[in-house]
Each structure stands twice: as structure tokens, then as C-alpha cells.
Predict the 3D structure of the following.
Amino acid sequence: MSSGRTEDITVQVTYDGQQHELRTYSNEYRSLMMLIYDRIYIEGFGECLGMGKCGTCVIEITEKKQNPTAYERNGDANLLRAGRQNKNICLSCQLMIDEQLDGLTVRILI
Ligand code: FES
């Protein structure tokens, strides 16, 4: 019998030349930024704690099985201001932890 909650979402994160496999489950964290923030120490990452204002949680999506679910906030405006217009580059605090995230491979850009 299943306990109900399984770590069924896997995200590969590359930072500073090292690859980290992060396993989680739907809604364990508020966003991909919080998952990364909690599991990998990255100085200066996620400074506004997910308000979509600091731009320090920028990632590049290098592989995906499906499109991740994004919050509708002002993240795109901040990215445009920062001059990043590549559609694979986004704020990790704008991505929800749900099954759409499974199989995602990202690179931290700060
Ligand atoms: S944590 Fe500040 S913009 Fe994402």
C-alpha cells in the first residue's frame, strides 16, 4: 500500500559546473526557486524570496518533457527590463512545483 506522498518530480539543476538531482512532490515548495534555495547553497540566489522583483533566481531551461506551470505575476516584465528575452530563460520563482515540472533540466544563470 502506498503512503500517498511520493517524490515523483525530478528536476536536474546545474550550478557552477555541478549537476544536482532534486526530487520533490507537488506543492512541497511554493516554487522551483524555493526548492533550489532549500537544497543547494547559492550565494545571492532568490533574494526577494519569490516576489518576482530581484531577478536573482534566473534559470535557463535546457531540457523539458512538458511546459512548466507558471504563476501569472510580473516576472516577464522584470526579465525584459533585464534584457533577457530568450524564451528558455525565466525566473524560477515563477514556476510552480507540480507534475509539469518533472523531467525539467535547468542551469542557474547567476
Ligand atoms: S526570487 Fe526574486 S525574482 Fe525570483
User: Anything to note?
Assistant: The chain has a mean pLDDT of 89.
